[in-house]
Write a structure and sequence with these properties.
Elements: H1 22-52, H2 60-78
Helix pairs in contact: 1-2
Length: 128
Amino acid sequence: MRVTRHSRRGTAHLVTEAAPSRSEDIAYRERRYLIMMAFRVGCFILTIVLFAAGAGWFAAIPAVGALVIPYFAVVFANGGREPSSTRGFRAYEPNLPERYSPPSQTLPGTPPDPGQPDNDSGTCPEQE
């Protein structure tokens, strides 16, 4: 009698739809933030060089970049790990009872409804 062992080496499974791990996601966002901040420093240095060279209004272009880039860098760095679909979320639907409406009452001196008996006993005159 021969005993055979099954090898698991040939059964590799790929997970293509899986999101990156949390540490990979954070590392990617940190890297992107640092690249944007390096670009900001470059804009700032270019502004100083252009201003010193007497470029006039051309120095304002990289200065605006140096002022605006931090906002986008922070937004991009903080904008991760959100669910990509809202399939799991439902809108809130309150389960309220129907609105209460009191029974209609006839006031003295008003004609009764045609479907209601007009005597006090609650029976129709034909039944008496």
